[in-house]
Structures are given as structure tokens and as C-alpha cells.
Design a protein that fits this description.
232 residues; alpha+beta; GIY-YIG endonuclease; 2 domains; 5-stranded antiparallel sheet; 3-stranded antiparallel sheet
């Protein structure tokens, strides 16, 4: 049996009672908590399962939990994959297809693209970046599903700037705050993706180079009002 099958059987056996990712990990003795998170999110794509923030019936804590919900169905002969409607497997380094929301569409329209995501390994926040590592300057955003959580700009290589969110220095208050937000979001079961923009052909005003990333940042933050950006 696969890990997905094990997680599914455990949830069904709970008879509509809720269970969080941590308790799934403990009961199935999974080596990595993120396996439980990934599999429960896959199962939640099916109408047979519901995932939301609620009290876990096992540990009693308020977390993202999943439960089995009975539905009559004529598709009993379908495989588990067919019942869940799992999309085609995405290559690790391929960009996600984002949902159609006005703010996200506008960023995509001006050249933002998916360049990576944030993950937790052993409770440590890690950056998985596969594109635009050396881009200078750059504008970037952290998103969850269709929600734009944070927008920032950098005049460092993009990979170096993002690294400091994973490993903030003791005096880097913004990095420390965003690091804590990212950790909590991933612990809550959110997938935090990174999208970024880089002006490949810099614009000039006379003999001066226009930093388009810096010029765009203020108005993008003003119009979108990302949750994690500090309001001034």
C-alpha cells in the first residue's frame, strides 16, 4: 500500500471524526510530517473528504484537520486516483498554474512567474528555488493558493535575498517576522509559493537606468494590500 492509501484508510476508520496532520504522522509513524500534509491535501480534492480549520478529535487542538464524509456514489469501481480527481503529476521544477483572481492575474500579466516555494524539514524553514536565482533587481511575492501574502523587492541576487527569510540575522526584524509567518503558514497546511518579476531589458530615462521593480513595488502593495506587508 502507498502512503496515500494508509492515510485514506486511517481517516475513513475515524468515522467522520477529525484528525490533524500531526496526529496522522504519529499514528502512521511517518518519517516526515509533510507527507501527512501532502496526502491529506490530495484527499481533500475529493468530495468524500473535507479539510478545514477545526478541533482535532485526537489531540484536541485547533489545527487544519481532515474528516471523511459519507456520500452515495455510483463510482465504486473507480480507482482511488479517479475518485479524487488528482491532476497530472507536476514536475518539481515546473511552474504552477495559478487560479484566476484579479490581483494574481495582473501580476502574471506584467511578467511574474512561479520560481519556487517554501517547505519545512525537521521544523526548519527551507527555500526551494529553481529559477531566477541570480536576477538583479527583482520583485517577488509569497502566495498561498490565490492569496498574495507578501510583496518585496531586492537589489541583491534574488536567491540571496530569499535566503535571509529562511536564516534571518538577529537584528533583521522584517526577516524574523516573515520567517515566523512562513513557518506558521506551512504548519497550518498552506502551500507557500514564490513568484517573481525581473526586468530583463532595463528601461532608461536619458542616461539613467530605471529600476522597474522598485517603481512597481509601492503601487502593487497599495492596490493589493498584502496581509504580511507592514502598513505605514
Amino acid at each position: 500500500m502507498t502512503v496515500l492509501d494508509d492515510v485514506r484508510e486511517l481517516i475513513v476508520a475515524l468515522d467522520k471524526r477529525t484528525i490533524c496532520d500531526d496526529c496522522i504522522t504519529n499514528k502512521l509513524q511517518l518519517s516526515v510530517r509533510q507527507y501527512a500534509n501532502q496526502k491529506s491535501r490530495v484527499l481533500a480534492k475529493s468530495p468524500l473528504f473535507a479539510r478545514n480549520k477545526d478541533v482535532c478529535s485526537t489531540c484536541g487542538k485547533i489545527k487544519y484537520v481532515i474528516r471523511h464524509q459519507y456520500q452515495q456514489s455510483n463510482n465504486n469501481n473507480l480507482s482511488l486516483t479517479e475518485k479524487i480527481h488528482i491532476p497530472a503529476k507536476q514536475e518539481k521544477n515546473s511552474p504552477r498554474i495559478f487560479s484566476n483572481t484579479p490581483s494574481l492575474n495582473e501580476l502574471k500579466a506584467i511578467g511574474f512567474k512561479h520560481i519556487g516555494n517554501w517547505i519545512l524539514e525537521g521544523g526548519v524553514l527551507k527555500l526551494n528555488q529553481f529559477d531566477m536565482k541570480k536576477s538583479i533587481p527583482a520583485l517577488y511575492a509569497f502566495i498561498s493558493e490565490t492569496n498574495i501574502l507578501y510583496v518585496g523587492k531586492t537589489n541583491q541576487m534574488l536567491a540571496k535575498r530569499l535566503y535571509f527569510y529562511a536564516k534571518p540575522g538577529p537584528t533583521q526584524s522584517t526577516n524574523i517576522r516573515i520567517n515566523a509567518n512562513l513557518k506558521q503558514a506551512v504548519l497550518d497546511g498552506q502551500s507557500i509559493d514564490i513568484i517573481a518579476f525581473h526586468d530583463d531589458i532595463p528601461k532608461k530615462v536619458g542616461s539613467f537606468i530605471l529600476n522597474l521593480s522598485a517603481g512597481l513595488e509601492d503601487d502593487i502593495i497599495r492596490q493589493i494590500s498584502p496581509l504580511w506587508n507592514v502598513r505605514k
